Structure formats: structure tokens, C-alpha cells
Amino acid sequence: MPPDRQSKIRELFDDYIEMYAARDDRLTARFSQSFTGYSGSGSRLIRDREEWVRITRQDFAQVPGRIRIEMLDLALQDLCDDVVVATAFFHIHLPSGVHQLAKEVARLVLIFRLEGADWLIAHCSYSIPYQSVQDGEVFPLQSLKEQNSALQALVAERTQALQESQALYRLLTEDAQDVLWRTDSQLVLTYISPADERLRGFRADEVVGRHVFDMFNEEGVAVLKAMIARRVQEEASGTPVGFLNFEVQHRCKDGRLIWGEVLSKPDRNAQGEIIGYHGITREITERKRLEEQVHQLAFHDPLTHLANRRLMLDHLEQAMSASKRSQRHGALLFLDLDNFKPLNDTHGHGVGDLLLIEVAERLKACVREADTVARFGGDEFVVLLSELSTQPGEADEQAVAIAEKVRTRLAEPYVLQSAPSAPAIRHECTASIGVAVFRGRDESQNAVIDRADAAMYRAKEEGRNRIQCAPGPAAAG
């Protein structure tokens, strides 16, 4: 991530933490109108912005004094130009004399989205590993006060050591919603909390004694192996490793896969040698789904689900780099529908949308899975072909052959029906196609697009429903 981008995400996060810690009501103005969030209970997705504002103000009223946030770990992620994510782990120190919460590891996920000129909070998720958090609460204040009174009574009967070794142990492990675990130095599980059975369905006796790799799918094992190799390298260079944070898919007993966020720390003996590991695993399946949804909205056309202009430019950049290495040609096909506007004018945009969706499906059926089909807007589409021949003439022939396949398929009649009971509309619609073949980085992305676009307009001028090849970059210049 570029330093200036990282600095921007950190600035947004620090500003949020400062306003939250100061109980500053101006924080409520930072929530997007399309806000979603989870409060401390983590059991209900709140979709109403005003409900979240109410919860925030209730939180501020219950704990009016400034709170202290002791940061443990922070991960910054750049999803796209206008969406960023910050994930933090921390201890919360309340000013009310209730100290149990300060011993918990809390998690906060913030998704910021650029809306107009302002970065607003599109999603906020607090996770407090405490079953007694009520819906609508950020902190489990009522239950914490009750348990605090019970602990004070217990002090008179038991020693402080007994409190910490038994009551606090049960509080942090047996009743936690998150999975607490411990392994030996070879990553063989020696303890796992009951929450794992609730999440994945495996009893503790089916897990303890097995290697942690058995918990993950193949991709998760690969992620963990890479982190182990990096840790060994860092330890060998004299850099002790503290907390590690990673996200992997976990296997469930019924065959499902769920996403888990793992926070791990090594256990060391007096000589500093690693003798085991312990940590916390939290289910983040819903968060990953939301992240995927955000990514889909940022890089795909919402009507046709094809790549949008932004994603196409990214794929063109990759294709040009690959072409430079392999010396294989690539090609860009720029398409414009010849008879689209009359359909919209006669039958409305709803029927026009049905035609665009059908065009998208036909385009995808004409190209390879490795190629990219994108909608640039309106009735303009782009097809990116890669891995063509190293010989210019052969590459031209390959690109034209695919373009002819596309032209023929798109010229076939369309039968459009907006609903089962609606009358079917038969429509004839062809496409004018411009083809620009490229190799390596002899020209810019925009130059390739401009050549294909100009060739498409020549195809229209020469009668439509035809293919026009663009001259090479030197001739075009």
C-alpha cells in the first residue's frame, strides 16, 4: 500500500478513535446514510442509521467520561479507490470502576467509503467476547456491574489467586463466543474452548491432540505455512514475533467452510524459546460477505455483472505487462450496438436493460474464461483478448476471427420478455466492432482504447454490423 494511502486510512481511523474515546457526539455525523453495523453483542445486523446513532448516544450516556483505548494490533486494507477497511484489536478501560472489560480483547472493524468529498463510515462492527452483551449495547455494562458486585462478595471468601485462576478463566474461555485455543510448539492443539463446537460442530475431544492444519482448508494451510516460514526467518534475525493476525477458512463438521480471524501469540520459556502458542479465533463470515459485496459494487456493472471500466483498465494493465514478458500479442475489441436506441424509445428502458443483459451473456459465451468482457457504459462493450500469437499477422487473424464470432452471435434475433405474462418482443440488433491489436508497452492504455474506439466509429460510418481493424500504434500516430 502506498505510504500516502496508508497515512490516509490511519488518519480516518485515528480520528474515529479520538472522537469515540472523547464521547464526542459529532461522531454521529460521520455515519453514511446507507450505514450497517454490529453492536457489542454481534448477533444482529443493524441496517438503520438512526438506530445506530441512538445506540451510540446511549453508549455515550452510559459512560459519559472519557474512556481509554489500549491498542494491541491494527490492520489497514485498501479495497479500492473509495473503500478502505481498518481492523483493530484493543483493550477498553472504562472510567466507571468496572475492570473486567479491560481484560478482554475487543475487535473493531470500520469500513470507510468516499461519498462525494467526504469519507463516511459505511460499516462498523464491535465484537466484545462477552455473552452478556444485550442487543443495542456496545458494552455489557449492566451485566458487568452485576458480576462486579458478585466478585466483590467473592473476595471475602476466596483469595485473589483463586478468583483469577478459576472465575476469570471460566469467564474468558468457557463462556466466550470466540474460540480460545492453545497448542504446543509443534502446533498440536492442547486446549480448545467450547465455542469451537458451537461454531464448527467438532467436540473438544475430536480436536485436541490434532494438528491445527486439520482445522483449515488447503488455502488456509498455505497461508499459515507462509506465516510460519516468515516467523522463523524473523526469529533467526533476532526479531521476536508478537501477535500475528490472519484470516483463513475453517472446516466444519457438516462440510461447510466458515471464515475465521485468528489472533495468535507465542508462549516462551525463560530463555525466550517458543514452547507453544495461544490465541483467539473469531468467525467473520458475514464480514467477508460484506467485503465481497463492496468489491463487487466497486468493480462490476450492476446491471450486467460484467467488469466495469475501472476493472477493465486494471486487466488491460496486467495484459500489457504479461505481453511484454511473453512477446505474445493482445487485442481490444470495442463494440457499440447499432440498433439500441429505437428499442429504448419504443418499449422503455426496462426492455432495453433486458437486451443489454442478453448481449452480455452472448459476449461471455464467445470468448475464453481468461479473457475479459466489460461494459463501458450505455450500449458500449469492450472485450480484452490475451495470449494471442507472437506473430503480428497471426495475432490479427486470431483477433478478427473472435470479433467475427462476436458479430455473428450478436446479430442473431433477440426475444425479450420482461415478465412471464408480458408479451414477447422480437428485436434485431447488430454491433459495430473496432479491433486494436497490441504487444507489450509500445503505447499507453488510453492509446489502445482510442485506436479500438476510432476503428469502431469507422465501422459504423461504413455501414454498421461490421468489423474494422485499427492501424498499429506507429501508423495511428
Give the overall average pLDDT. Answer: 84
Strand elements, count: 17
Number of helical regions: 14
Distance between the termini: 35 Å
Structural class: alpha+beta
Main sheet summary: 5 strands, mixed
Poorly predicted runs? none
Which value, in Å, is the CA radius of gyration? 29 Å
| Strand composition percent | 25-35%
Question: How do the strands of the widest beta sheet line up side by side?
Answer: 1-5-4-3-2
The shape, in one word, is globular
Q: Which bin fits the share of residues in helices?
A: 25-40%
Descriptors for this entry?
14 helices; 477 residues; single chain; 5-stranded antiparallel beta sheet; 17 strands; alpha+beta; globular
Overall description:
This protein is of the alpha+beta class and 477 residues long. The chain is 40% helix and 27% strand. The protein contains 14 helices and 17 strands. It has helices at 3-21, 49-62, 141-155, 160-172, 195-200, 204-207, 218-236, 285-299, 309-326, 341-347, 349-366, 392-411, 445-461, 473-476; strands at residues 31-38, 68-80, 83-93, 106-115, 118-127, 179-184, 189-192, 244-251, 257-268, 274-283, 330-337, 372-377, 380-385, 414-416, 425-427, 431-438, 467-469. A 5-stranded mixed sheet has the order 1-5-4-3-2. Strands 7-6-10-9-8 form a 5-stranded antiparallel sheet, with helices on both faces. Strands 12-13-11-16-17 form a 5-stranded mixed sheet, sandwiched between helices. Strand 16 (431-438), helix 13 (445-461) and strand 17 form a beta-alpha-beta unit. Helix 11 packs antiparallel against helix 12. The radius of gyration is 29 Å and the shape is globular. The model has no long low-confidence stretch (mean pLDDT 84).
